[in-house]
Sequence to fold (1064 residues):
Amino acid sequence: MYFLHKRCYRNAVKPVCEQKSLLPLNIQPQTEKCSFPVFFLFLVVEQVKHTPTCVLPLRCRKENLENIPALAENPIKNQIIEAFFDKRNQHGNEVGSFQEIGFEQFVMVMSHFRPPNLKTTKEEKQEMRKEKLRFLFNMHDTDGDGIITLQEYRKVVEELLSNSGAMDQDAAHEIADAAMLEVASTNVPQMSPEDHYEGITFQHFEQILKDLEMETRMFIRFLDVDTTTMHCGKATS
Amino acid sequence: MGRGGSVRFWIFGSMLLIGVWGQEPKSERHDEHGGGSNVSGISIVSLEWEYVEPPYLVALWILVCFLCKLVIEANHHVTEFIPESALLICSGFILGGMIWGADKVQTFRLTPYDFFHYFLPPIILDTGYSMPNKLFFTNLGGILIHAIIGTCWNAASLGLSLWGCQIGGAMGDLNVGLLQYLLFGSLIAAVDPVAVLAVFEQVHVNEVLFIMVFGESLLNDGVTVVLFNVFNAFVTLGGPRINAAEIIKGIISFFVVAFGGSLVGFVFGLLFALLSRCTKNIQIIEPGFLFILGYLAYLTAEMLSLSAILSIVFFGVCCQKYINANMDENSVRTMKCAVKVFANGAETMIFVFLGISAIDKSIWVWNTGFVLLTLLFILIYRFMGVFFLTWFMNLTRLVPIDYTDQVIMSYGGLRGAVAYGLAVMLDEAKIEEKKLMVSTTLIVVYFTVILQGVTMKPLVKWLKVKRAASAEKTLIEKVQNRAFEHILVAIEDISGQKGNNYLRNKWFKFEENWMSRILLRPSVRERQDKVFNVFHQLNLKDAMSYVVEGERRGSLEFIRNESAFVDFKKKFGEDMTMSMPDIMADMSDDRSAASSTRKESVPSVSLEVHEQAMRGTRAAEGLDSHHLLQQHLYKGRKQHRHRYSRSHFDINKDENEIQEIFQRTMKSRLESFKSGKMGVAPPKTITKHTRKEQQQKLQNKKSKSRLSGDEDFEFSEGDSASGYDTSFPVRGGYRPGAGIENPAFMPDVDLPLQIPPWLEDVDSVAPSQRAQVRLPWTPSNLRRLSPLRISTRSSDSFNLAEAPGDHQDDQLPPPPTPPPHRDGDVV
Fold:
């Protein structure tokens, strides 16, 4: 299900479209450095698509995202960008990654950050929670084999801590190891020392984060737009 | 039985106290008169009751209140159903009754001056200092709405309805005008932080609900103060002279009072944070700054007629992060405990005195209509206000507050001592029905605190309100939270939108770049990381449970190498069973039986170990930890002497003295060992000795040897370090003879002696995987520690770092040489 913000359209997209210089025709994000907020970009394109003077819907490549200046300081930038191009995050059963994504794929990824509202039922909340967890899991599971191995997790922690100068790689590794052991000990309590814990499966991941309040954390709400959303497009399962 | 007995005892005790009070002043006066008559001679002992009376009474009252709490908390079956605050008020009733019975007049009551100047500040300081900042600020919007609009609504609706009822003739003939009703409404409108905290702390509702009610109760103080002052001024002015200008002034004064108070607190908080950067050299009084500056913030706000409560809350809120990071861990711990002591003490006193104040005939004026209507309106309007405001908030709230939570929020609108204090402060000259208002306020307070407090818990259970989740945060959750922050910010960046995460991120950046730079010590700034902190905490916990486990098993040594324990036992058995089988049997019993006594002796050691573990994780201090460890372990012998310094806790570090003490103990032990070996000391008597007696005996021996002073010490007398090392085998031999004085000292006799002992000690800080493997009953608890080991940082690199620079290797007596007692054993 797509959601567009009404006011977002009114306040942001329309003026952008009206400014000649920013019309999608002139942007050409595939080739040039795109510092233009991608969400707007897509909105513009989608809007234009329905008009007779429609150009081809724009596609977005990894470089476009990587060039966003605000992202530069983000320690887990790469993983987030990967997540947008990951086919697993498209609510389908596909595996692998896209070379470039369109608006549809973009919104699919964004939909993981839906906030719940008053009407959401318990089952829906559960489902949403699972989706969000799945998204997180996919972010950590870089090779897509369904298991977060120690190496993968170490990498995540390392990147997470990389911008706090105090900690070196060793400390990050220690923390990752400890977290891993934590998972292992909660999920396989009677593990004998000889056993090798291969990595975190999704079930384990779900289990260990079961107390984490996902609904209140993993959501995006934009300050400058109306939160009442306008549903458009086709509803996907 | 226990409860009944204790209550009886307590009543008896307080009767005694009352009796003392009842009589003492009179007898003193009598004495003085007597003393006055014969001024000649110097009286050797004179009672100066008048001289000490005020502080003495204060101290006695504090003691009595604390004893009340002690009795109440003695039995948890009661406090499970009735909240402590209610019980304290009830005990206040009893105490007040006794005073009334003795004096026929209520001599003690809660005066607003004492309440606002001495009792309230510590409680609010505690709440501010231990405020969950993130929770508080994320819910600030809702809290403010409830605190400002809700309180105004409560005050206005109550005042107006009561006025309407009076016009309707519901409560007889009262000389109260509309303004006075509004004044009354404003003083009783505010939810009381003390009462709320006391009740909600025991109920454990979910944290959002808690912070909503509690935050409201804290922040509505600004509103209450303003409303009270404004209406008080209006009452003084009289109805006709109030014009629009006055009302506007009132509204402006609200902003000034609330924001001014917060600003004062904020400034003091920053001041404190700055100050804490440079208190390293006066660590011993460091914690005192919290109280002094907090109190100053409170008084300053009071002086400027701003909201004092807001001031001290924000003082705590904004300094907590920086001071906790800047100050020494000991100081922080001290502050945390001291704040709680003061706050809890003050709270106890408040409730007891609220009870005592009631037993006074002179304050009671009864008007059934007024009292009942007030109670009714308070409840109804609270519910209405909360439901309406929450409905309004839920329109924009992401996670809506559901109806059960709203019910609890409404029901949790407890009124307390603040309302009473304000009511007592009313001017009787202006308000004729002051007494009625005071007594109504008291009734409301009792009704809300006792009745609503008691029913709160069942209600929470019955409505199945979401309880607080277990506070334990796992490491992976923390990592995940950290990831969330970044993901959300990244998504907002990508979509080019500004969300609340954007703002939060900006604030974090700002704080990191500016606030932290200015307010934190440079050395501390580097350690600021949440994930790392959790890691650190978990490690600490593991280390502690590890030590506890060690104590349970008797010795750290045995955890380290379980095989040694077994072997030791076996060997020990081989050696000893032949000579004294009785001891063997008794010893094994003794080990389990004496575990409790042992625990008393061990903690001094284990705490040190724990501290070492703590420091060990911090790489910088890690290097010399085994020296420290050894020294601290030695300290456990309790032979150290304190330097009687007011500013240092240091124990005696004089090498010579330590060496001497050491030799003496060694000698006494050797003696006892020898005697045990030779069978000089009859085994039966030894086994029958309790530990204390044994220690006593040891003391005697020590003193004897000190007297004799002969130096037939058999060991190589190197420096203190080598002395420690040689001591290990001896202790092993000593054990069968005279029992264990300190289990943590049990050496690993059967370790290959090539391993220098300190390396083993290091191991105890960061347990090896081997040790973990051998703790099958705590598989999950101890696993976290292993990474420390894996990283080869804790022990291995440690050794490497240690080896080249250390000259101790040379001084050490060659470890493989068999120690004397072993020879003895073999022979």
Q: What stands out?
A: The CA atoms of residues 171 and 808 of chain B lie 90 Å apart. Residues 2-37 of chain B form the longest helix (36 residues).
